[in-house]
Design brief:
Elements: H1 11-23, E1 33-38, H2 43-56, E2 61-67, H3 69-78, E3 83-86, E4 99-112, E5 120-121, H4 123-131, E6 148-152, H5 157-167, E7 177-179, H6 182-190, E8 195-200, E9 209-210, E10 212-213, H7 220-224, E11 231-238, H8 244-253, H9 256-265, E12 268-269
Parallel strand pairs: 1-2, 1-3, 5-10, 6-7, 6-8
Antiparallel strand pairs: 3-11, 4-8, 4-9, 4-11, 4-12
Helix pairs in contact: 1-3
């Protein structure tokens, strides 16, 4: 895994920000256009809200882009997007210049292939698996097969939150494979019987199996009541006073209608 000096973004993140800056000239705020960028975990949910909003607000245009939480922060700071999206336990220092609004909450599920007989991991077992200290499924009651760790890339809010919650200071296993979205992590695990990864609870489907963590199923009900500990807020990040049409979209996302859509799609209401 590549290392980087303190205070600099990974090359992939820098390129993503540059691409957003160059590509946003045609999509940035013109008239009633709003651009969101950042969290790939929240991106599909934001796209659903944008579609609904445009269908009910004549003349409005909402453009949703991904790139990861680091891109969301930098895009909001630079003005490349009116709204940055970030899913982090704690916002970094560079985000202090931004206004942060929690628009939803999301659990993180550890997932394996449906044929894997393992159904649960303790916190200690999960840390050992993702750090590489436990390298064979046989140790956990599974098949005699090497564990293949699938992770999000640096700059991902899901990755940062998972590292803090599960790895707790341990380094990710050497040889881990990296994916650029929760969706691609899910598909990588679904296609590999020896793989393990982590995705938003709202993105778990029949193609993967979510494991209990410390004896608790990764459900929204248990995230909401605090029983399931692997969870983080999702932020909208903005800078300065918002144009009326941008504020209108933020208000819509926080409305009972939009919060109900997010809940139906697998997230947890902001309040």
């Amino acid at each position: 895994m590549k290392t980087r000096s303190k205070g600099t973004m990974p090359v992939c993140t820098s390129l993503a920000v540059l691409g957003l800056l160059l590509g946003s000239g045609c999509s940035r705020s013109t008239g009633r256009s709003v651009t969101l960028a950042g969290s790939t975990a929240f991106q599909p949910f934001a796209e659903k809200l944008a579609e609904r909003y445009m269908a009910t607000h004549a003349g409005a245009r909402v453009n949703v882009q991904g790139g990861g939480s680091a891109v969301g922060i930098q895009s909001a700071l630079s003005g490349a997007a009116e709204i940055g999206m970030a899913d982090l336990l704690q916002l970094p220092d560079e985000a202090k210049a931004l206004s942060a609004t929690i628009v939803a909450r999301d659990g993180i599920a550890i997932v394996v292939h449906p044929k894997n007989p393992v159904v649960a991991l303790s916190a200690e077992q999960a840390r050992a698996v993702f750090s590489g200290k436990t390298a064979n499924w046989k140790v956990l009651g599974g098949p005699d097969a090497a564990i293949r760790v699938i992770s999000r890339e640096e700059g991902s809010g899901t990755r940062r939150s998972f590292d803090k919650l599960v790895l707790a200071g341990e380094a990710l296993a050497a040889g881990s494979l990296f994916q650029n979205s929760n969706g691609t992590v899910r598909e990588a695990v679904a296609s590999d019987a020896a793989a393990v990864g982590y995705v938003s609870v709202g993105l778990v489907n029949k193609r993967v199996k979510a494991l209990k963590y410390n004896g608790v199923d990764p459900t929204n009900a248990d995230v909401a009541n605090g029983t399931y500990p692997l969870a983080r807020p999702i932020f909208f990040l903005t800078r300065g006073a918002l144009a009326p049409h941008v504020q209108e979209f933020v208000d819509y996302v926080l409305s009972p209608e939009a919060q109900g859509i997010l809940e139906h799609e697998g997230l947890i209401r902001a309040k």
